[in-house]
């Protein structure tokens, strides 16, 4: 377990810290809690669900990587399955500031990558910025989503984002977390196949420029990331960011990456190639293989 997770545990109340320790210290801990684990934590800590989510924010924020701001934000995306997914902000020194990942995006992407069907609430330790409010408005549960903040009564996303601009304004009925299955021809290389699978599940209703990334870790494992587009375009989450969120939350350092593959649609209206390669260079000179695929 890394030092920042340990520090976060030590800053919990003794009752919660003791209850959390066995989960967080397990090798299998991947920055989420099942419904059963959430209720066991509630029992052990004596906290309500909302109080527990707020109390877990320092643990979520301990995953932050903030070389630019040193401002650590933690978020928890609460799934309809009952599972809670942690997330934190991630900044990239030497890359454009627009590449930053916000904590809310991290937690939401985490839940999406774990195939959670819908979110009921997002809990975060600072008020969500406009970009995150817009990102959340893409969700299939945007109309019902509750936002929990320390010291504030729970409010809906639409309390935070009145008169919202969203997918319907562009004539799109699809929403983020609706299952996607864009058919692409298979390839024999397993890492490329993993990136194709991520691209086929990516969400790009505005451009159809589906894309996915697979990052090989230490020769044995990989993480993947999917492109998540947004009606307002700029809050879209690129596939590399999606994969880097999963890398961080699964406890791997960037230095564990041994190979990176981007899959995108041939003749697409836009490309993730140069932005992804630039971040990988900023992170330490990792090269990016790009594979273009045709729809079946
Ligand atoms: N940040 C978030 O993670 N969520 C928000 O909604 C507010 C801002 C992060 C982004 C950046 O890493 C740092 O906080 C300073 O803005
Ligand atoms: Zn934000």
Sheet having the most strands: 6 strands, mixed
What portion of residues is helical?
25-40%
Give the terminus-to-terminus CA distance.
43 Å
Write down the CATH topology of the largest domain: Cytidine Deaminase, domain 2
CATH architectural label of the largest domain: 3-Layer(aba) Sandwich
Give the number of domains: 2
Radius of gyration: 19 Å
Identify the strand order in the major beta sheet: 1-3-2-4-5-6
Active site: 104 (proton donor)
Keywords: Hydrolase, Metal-binding, Zinc
Pfam family, one: dCMP_cyt_deam_1
Family: Belongs to the cytidine and deoxycytidylate deaminase family.
Notes on the protein architecture:
By secondary structure, this protein is of the alpha+beta class. The protein has two domains: 135 residues, Cytidine Deaminase, domain 2 (3-Layer(aba) Sandwich), CATH 3.40.140.10; 104 residues, Cytidine Deaminase, domain 2 (3-Layer(aba) Sandwich). It contains eleven helices and ten strands. The strands form two sheets. It has a six-stranded mixed β-sheet. A hairpin with a 6-residue loop joins β5 and β6. It is globular, with a radius of gyration of 19 Å. The chain starts with a helix and ends with a strand. This is Cytidine deaminase. It comes from Rosenbergiella nectarea. Keywords: Hydrolase, Metal-binding, Zinc. InterPro entries: APOBEC/CMP_deaminase_Zn-bd (IPR016192), CMP_dCMP_dom (IPR002125), Cyd/dCyd_deaminase_Zn-bd (IPR013171), Cyt/Deoxycyt_deaminase (IPR050202), Cyt_deam_dimer (IPR006263), Cytidine_deaminase-like (IPR016193), Cytidine_deaminase_bacteria (IPR020797).
